[in-house]
């Protein structure tokens, strides 16, 4: 019984831990936004065909406009100007998180759930309004225990009004994302343009974009490469010329790793379960040997082979199902206890996976039949006289 319970509990717990890891990583990707892809400025050959001398290039607002015009497989895109050296000061405290200048439709690409107030709109961008939206950690730092909407924040001495706050995203103490402060793109370009861009007057920090459908993300990425390469004077198929991140590809790769991990963990659990079933079979065989006189007495008193077979089959199946139920209950209780503990970043508490529980129950049924049927047949085959005189 212990072997079966341990095998079932291990199977469910291992698969549950894997599913918790998968779920936590899926949430992290979802908190980026749906099918989000990023590209930053990179390094390209100084002359066509040369890979020994490289020059840096910065993305521009023109790249964004050309992207919208020349990339039919890209559904949406947004330019971002980002600075990390701008100090935010309220009347209560100060913060120095990431300051991003974005367009009004940026929240349609990135995951930015509103807590209070409103998001930036087209008029904020067109009129270069001095308004901002605070991330959750930035709000906690600048306005501890106080309402933020309508309050004033100084960004390097420039007055901004808080028009919205965001819900907290992510897990644990990873506060970088929640320290964000977002202002209109045009206002950012006026007061806090990108640093170290030389004479480029429309430089941006990076672009985010989405393919029309997830399946064509590679095609969308190639279209992006062609636009950027054309605008910055290098062949689009130049290797390592792009600094980018395709979250769709990363999610697919991580998914394959999780699938392989689930197969491995499930195999380990099934092997343990099989060993437990073998133990049950051995115990039942020993039980038949120890109870030989009982079997002979029952048969001498009129018990049929069928009744002897049913007795030992029922005992084996009962032991297997009971121990399996103990294993499932123990695994479920442990997972429920883990739900009450804080989870590390990228992890969710382990979850009882229904398909694994069904698999365990099916395996238990097979093991119970084997564990009960084989010893039962051995017991039913004994002759009454041989059984009674056996010591």
Shape: elongated
Overall number of structural domains: 2
Give start-end ranges of low-pLDDT stretches: none
The helix tally amounts to 11
Mean pLDDT across all amino acids: 83
Tell me the structural class: alpha+beta
DSSP helix fraction? 40-55%
Terminus-to-terminus distance: 28 Å
Sketch the major β-sheet. 12 strands, mixed
Secondary-structure element string: HEEEHEEEEEHEHEEEHEHEHHHHH
According to DSSP, the number of beta strands is 14
Question: Care to give the gist of this entry?
Answer:
By secondary structure, this protein is α+β, with helices and mostly antiparallel strands. It folds into two domains: 2-27 and 252-389, no CATH class; 75-195, no CATH class.
Provide an overview of this structure.
The structure is a single chain. This protein has 2 domains: 2-27 and 252-389, no CATH class; 75-195, no CATH class. The longest helix has 44 residues, at 247-290. It has helices at 2-30, 61-70, 122-126, 136-142, 185-191, 217-232, 247-290, 292-300, 305-339, 354-380, 384-389, and strands spanning 37-40, 43-45, 54-56, 74-83, 88-89, 94-95, 99-102, 114-117, 131-134, 152-155, 158-166, 181-184, 206-211, 243-246. It has 391 residues and is of the alpha+beta class. The radius of gyration is 33 Å and the shape is elongated. Strands 1, 4, 5, 6, 7, 8, 9, 10, 11, 12, 13 and 14 form a 12-stranded mixed β-sheet that branches. Strands 2-3 form a two-stranded antiparallel ribbon. The chain contains 11 helices and 14 strands. The model has no long low-confidence stretch (mean pLDDT 83). A hairpin with an 8-residue loop joins β2 and β3. α1 packs antiparallel against α7, α1 runs parallel beside α9 and α7 runs antiparallel to α9.
């Amino acid at each position: 019984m212990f072997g079966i319970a341990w095998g079932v509990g291990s199977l469910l717990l291992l698969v549950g831990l894997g599913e918790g890891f998968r779920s936590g990583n899926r949430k992290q990707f979802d908190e980026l936004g749906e099918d989000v892809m990023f590209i930053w400025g990179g390094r390209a050959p100084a002359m066509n065909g040369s890979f020994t001398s490289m020059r840096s290039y910065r993305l521009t607002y023109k790249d964004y406009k050309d992207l919208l015009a020349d990339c039919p497989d890209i559904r949406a895109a947004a330019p971002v100007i980002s600075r990390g050296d701008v100090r935010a000061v309220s009347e209560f405290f100060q913060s120095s998180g990431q300051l991003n200048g974005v367009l009004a439709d940026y929240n349609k690409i990135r995951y930015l759930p509103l807590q209070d107030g409103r998001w930036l709109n087209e008029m904020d961008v067109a009129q270069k309004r001095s308004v901002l939206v605070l991330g959750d950690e930035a709000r906690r730092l600048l306005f501890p225990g106080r309402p933020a909407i309508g309050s004033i924040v100084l960004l390097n001495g420039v007055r901004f009004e808080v028009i919205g706050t965001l819900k907290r995203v992510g897990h644990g103490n990873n506060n970088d994302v929640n320290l964000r402060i977002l202002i209109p793109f045009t206002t950012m370009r006026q007061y806090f343009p990108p640093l170290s861009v030389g004479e480029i007057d429309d430089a941006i920090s990076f672009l985010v974009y989405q393919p029309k459908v997830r399946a064509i993300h590679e095609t969308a990425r190639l279209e992006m490469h062609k636009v950027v390469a054309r605008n910055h004077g290098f062949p689009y198929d130049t290797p390592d010329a792009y600094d980018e991140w395709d979250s769709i590809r990363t999610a697919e790769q991580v998914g394959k790793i999780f699938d392989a991990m689930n197969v491995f963990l499930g195999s380990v659990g099934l092997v343990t379960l099989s060993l437990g079933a073998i133990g049950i079979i051995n115990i039942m065989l020993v039980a038949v040997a120890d109870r030989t006189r009982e079997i002979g007495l029952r048969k001498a008193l009129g018990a049929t082979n069928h009744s002897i077979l049913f007795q030992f089959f029922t005992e084996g199946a009962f032991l297997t199902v009971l121990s399996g139920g103990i294993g499932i209950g123990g695994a479920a209780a442990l997972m429920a206890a883990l739900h009450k503990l804080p989870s590390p970043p990228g992890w969710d508490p382990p979850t009882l996976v229904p398909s694994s529980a069904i698999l365990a129950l099916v395996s238990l049924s097979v093991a119970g039949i084997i564990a009960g049927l084989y010893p039962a047949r051995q017991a039913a085959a004994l002759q009454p006289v041989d059984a009674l005189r056996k010591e």
